[in-house]
Design brief:
The complex is a heterodimer of chains A (about 110) and B (about 110). Chain A is mostly beta strands and about 110 residues long. In chain A, about 0% of the residues lie in helices and about 50% in strands. Chain B has no helices and eleven strands. In chain B, strands 2, 4, 5, 9, 10 and 11 form a six-stranded mixed β-sheet that branches. A five-stranded antiparallel β-sheet of chain B has the order 1-3-8-7-6, with no helix packed on it. Classes of the chains: A mainly beta (about 110), B mainly beta (about 110).
């Protein structure tokens, strides 16, 4: 079974630019989550999709962040315009049911300079 | 306001000995707790969990203990092996809520 795939693995952009992160969950997993870890700090929840619907987006920092999950398959997280404080590792995870043993992807390391 | 705290950023343990990683939480609504293990350049991997109706859960070399009155949990690894060297994250949630609240992690190094 293929795992959760994220790309790019690294992205370096200038402040003010736009970046789009992509996540492909495990096939058949209705639940998809985005989390973020800022340097050395805790991993923080951003949002949760059930199929194509946003179930909980309480962790989204501000309206510069836009997440979509078209057709209930892969998801994208767009940051526009990027700010320095957006730097960190963005993790995607998926699960089939109400299971907390999510499967995480390897993350996208975003650096805003 | 950090609701899940891992106060030890790092821990070194001799191979074969017991590793004890600690976690404290402040939110009394949390009733389900998990430990994740993370290697460099990889995502966190689920390790073990415990519900608040229990005070202990064991899986092979890994045991999690929960002290609800103290709002404290710990992960015991025995015996510790070199492959256990990783960052360990404690996480908590209210069962039925899909959102996990993580701690800042503890880097465990097993010394051969």
């Amino acid at each position: 079974e293929a795992g959760v795939t994220q790309f790019p693995s690294h992205s370096v952009i200038e402040k003010g630019q736009t970046v789009t992160l992509r996540c492909d969950p495990i096939s058949g997993h209705d639940n998809l989550y985005w989390y973020r870890r800022v340097m050395g700090k805790e991993i923080k929840f951003l949002l949760h999709f059930v199929k194509e619907s946003k179930q909980d987006e309480s962790g989204m920092p501000n309206n510069r962040f836009l997440a979509e999950r078209t057709g209930g398959t892969y998801s994208t997280l767009k940051v526009q315009p990027a700010e320095l404080e957006d730097s960190g590792v963005y993790f995607c995870a998926s699960s089939q049911d109400h299971s907390y043993g999510y499967t995480f992807g390897s993350g996208t390391r975003l650096t805003v300079v | 306001d950090q609701q899940v705290k891992q106060n030890s950023p790092s821990l070194s343990v001799q191979e074969g000995r017991i590793s004890i990683l600690n976690c404290d939480y402040t939110n009394s609504m949390f009733d389900y707790f998990l430990w994740y293990k993370k290697y460099p350049a990889e995502g966190p991997t689920f390790l073990i969990s415990i519900s608040s109706i229990k005070d202990k859960n064991e899986d092979g070399r890994f045991t999690v203990f929960l002290n609800k009155s103290a709002k404290h949990l710990s992960l015991h690894i025995v015996p510790s092996q070199p492959g256990d060297s990783a960052v360990y994250f404690c996480a908590a949630t209210n069962f039925g809520n899909e959102k996990l609240t993580f701690g800042t992690g503890t880097r465990l190094t097993i010394i051969p």
